[in-house]
Design goal:
This protein is an alpha+beta fold. The protein is 36% helix and 26% strand. It has one domain: GAF domain (Beta-Lactamase). The protein binds methionine sulfoxide.
């Protein structure tokens, strides 16, 4: 049984604890699907204010839905389309305060207002993106972004 209680109020401690929990969850496990599934569950349980947390994988140059928590979602997203597609095409983190103002945003869940999408890259190729959606405007600040960049770096070694 895994029982991670990540409750720190200050974000730097919170993300340090979250990264340590993720490291221990993926340690020694080579299966990418298992690691994505546990990462999505850990994030969903630990990070407040989310309505979706999960992965899209680069399958032949197209993003295809991977393990996630939240409502059923769009299955295929072309590179360059929407927030996830922008992260995959550019290799840059996308932090969007209001997705309604983002050109080409894909509304999988009408409740989503802000998003943080992190490319997960290995050998200069984006192999997946981690997509975090919130029903609150501007849910993610620079500290959240920095914390999740560290999470994405752990995942880059575990997928
Ligand atoms: N809103 C995303 C699509 C994925 S879902 O939110 C799960 C986007 O525009 O990339």
């Amino acid at each position: 049984m895994y029982d991670f209680a990540i409750t720190a109020d200050d974000k730097s401690t919170f993300y340090r604890d979250l990264a340590a929990a993720l490291e221990s969850l993926v340690a020694g496990e080579p299966d990418a699907i298992a690691n994505m599934a546990n990462a999505a569950a850990l994030i969903w349980e630990s990070v407040p204010g989310l309505n979706w947390a999960g992965f899209y994988r680069n399958v032949g140059g197209e993003l295809v839905l991977g393990p996630f928590q939240g409502r059923a979602a769009c299955i295929r997203i072309p590179f360059g389309t929407g927030v996830c597609g922008a992260a995959a095409a550019t290799g840059q983190v996308q932090r969007v305060d209001d997705v309604h103002a983002f050109p080409g945003h894909i509304a999988c869940d009408a409740a989503s207002i802000s998003e943080l999408v992190l490319p997960i890259a290995r050998d200069d190729e984006v192999i997946a993106v981690l997509d975090l959606d919130s029903p609150h405007a501007a849910r993610f600040d620079a500290e959240d972004e920095a914390g999740f960049v560290a999470i994405a770096a752990i995942l880059a070694r575990a997928l």
